[in-house]
Automatic annotation (TrEMBL):
The keyword Membrane does not apply. GO terms for cellular component: cytoplasm. Coiled coil: none annotated. The keyword Protease does not apply. This is GTP-binding protein. The lineage of its organism: Bacteria, Bacillati, Chloroflexota, Chloroflexia, Chloroflexales. InterPro entries: Beta-grasp_dom_sf (IPR012675), P-loop_NTPase (IPR027417), TGS (IPR004095), TGS-like (IPR012676), YchF_C (IPR013029). Residues 87-170 form the TGS domain. GO terms for molecular function: ATP binding; ATP hydrolysis activity. Keywords: ATP-binding, Nucleotide-binding.
């Protein structure tokens, strides 16, 4: 059935993110809506409060959020929900000058993830050095992570996980 409908682009078949603006008094008990759509999510936020939070430095904003009972900034919740609904995730690359996040679809093999960076890397893919973000931070850097044995060598079929730090080895 889904195969037949795929070419029609019905709005009801698209993922739907509802962003609901509420008052400050509703922060602790956000409203719920009986919305029946199989691929949807709702993010309730207090727009006025979020605008004020955006003007504060990080430490002051964190204290203010704790006082109001806000667990995460609305911007972060909207992005996370969008990624989930669209089936997206991020992996990281780290070099001496730059750390960068790359967005790919969930369940993407390493060779295709390499293609998100550059088609030459995908074409000449040999293998990927993979370390989980938390393991890399705990180790204090890639050389230390290698010494601790948390860096793995993976091939083309490895399914990249959300938050993996990848170093792709290739030859073109």
């Amino acid at each position: 059935e889904a195969q037949v409908l795929r070419g029609y682009q019905f709005l009801t078949a698209k993922p739907m993110l509802l962003v609901v603006n509420m008052g400050e008094s509703q922060i602790k008990n956000p409203p719920s809506f009986p919305y029946e759509h199989k691929n949807s999510d709702m993010v309730a936020l207090a727009g006025k409060i979020e605008a004020e939070l955006a003007q504060l430095d990080d430490d002051d904003a964190q204290v203010f959020m704790e006082d109001l009972g806000i667990t995460a900034a609305a911007r972060d919740r909207v992005i996370a929900s969008s990624y989930t609904l669209l089936g997206l995730m991020s992996f990281l690359t780290a070099g001496p000058d730059e750390v960068r996040a790359w967005t790919i679809r969930r369940n993407t093999p390493a060779v295709e993830a390499a293609g998100a960076i550059h088609s030459d890397i995908q074409r000449g893919f040999i293998r990927a050095e993979i370390v989980a973000y938390d393991d890399l931070i705990r180790a204090g850097g890639m050389p230390e992570a290698k010494k601790q044995g948390t860096v793995r060598m993976e091939g083309k079929t490895y399914i990249v996980k959300d938050g993996d730090v990848c170093h792709f080895l290739f030859n073109v």
